[in-house]
Amino acid sequence: ALTAPVLAQDNPYGLIDPTVISVGTMGDAKPYAFTTADGAFSGFDIELMQNVAERLGFKKDQVIFTGQEFSALIPSVANGRFDVAAAAIGTTEKRKQTVDFGDGYLAGFLSVMTADPSIKDAVGLKGKRLGVVQGSLQEIYAEKNFTGADLVKFPDNNSAVSALNNGTVDAHFLDYEAAKDYANRYPELKIGVNIPSFDAPAGFVIRKGNDALRVALNKALHEAMQDGTWKKLHEKWFPGTPMPADYLPKT
Q: Which of 68, 105, 161, 225 is the most exposed place for a label (fewest CB within 10 A)?
C-alpha cells in the first residue's frame, strides 16, 4: 500500500522520515568518522553533522548515523536510503552527476617541503628545483602558480624525498598529511608553505534535487564556521593541521 504523502509543511526539508535526519557514514575512518567501543559514532564529520542538524532543530537523538563502506554511501543517498552522507566525501564533478553536495567544509592542503629556510612562500621558489609527482594535483597547481620554479617530476613521493635529502631538488610539493609524515621521519625537512586546495573539498551529500535540505545545511554550516564551532572541532580532531581562512570566522 502507498503511504500517505507527508505534507510539505510537516516536512520542510524533504526527509525520508520528517522526525529524524538519517545519515550514512563510516565506522572506521578516524578522525573523520568512526565507532567508539560502545558503538556510538564519533569524529569530526559526525560532530559537525550533529551541530548543523541541531541548528535545523533536530536533537542529538534525532540524528541517526549508520555505518557503511565508503563506496556505498553515494548510491545510498541517491536511492533514498539516507537523507545525507557525511564522511569526508570529496566533491567531484563525477559524483555530482548522481547526487548534490553542500558547500565544502574540509579542504586538503598542498605543502612544500624543504630544508631551505628561505622557502616560505611561492616567491621563495623562484629559480629553485621543485619536485612534483607526475600526474598529481600538485604538478597541475605548480605549473599554473609556481612559474618561477624549475619543476622536476618523480614517479612517487619516496623518490622525490630521497632526491630532496641528497640535494638533487631544493623542495618537494606534496599533500599535507604525507608531508607531516616525512617531516617526522626526517627532522631536517620542514614544511615551508601550506596552500589550501579547494579542488575537491569534503561536503555533505544530499539526494539530487533536494534543494530545501541543501540550502538549510549550507546556512547552518556557515553559521557554524562564523561562530567558531567549526574551528573548535577542527582543532580538536586535527590538532596542528592548518585551517583555510575561508572556513574561519570573518572578523
A: 68
